[in-house]
Amino acid sequence: MQLQHTRFVHILSEKGKYYFLFHPGRFGKSLFIDTLKEAFEGNKDLFTGLWLHEHWDWKKRYPVIHISFAEGVLKSRKQLDERI
Prior knowledge:
Low-confidence stretches: none
Number of strands: 0
Order of helices and strands: HHHH
Structural class: mainly alpha
Radius of gyration: 15 Å
Number of helices: 4
């Protein structure tokens, strides 16, 4: 299972521009986003023994911006602007 997830990180980074990840709750979206973050930040040691460890350019590091809207319901544009 982990082998497939790290290979998917590589495929997404090589083949696309924008993605919208949507699955019902409890399907591992947060874990996958954290995996993407760690790969783009170049944290090679976390991927030891996994497919991505040998197939990623660990010399390149990218800034990661994480915006979460999981902290409740926003009821106005002003609240949205403040959250962002």
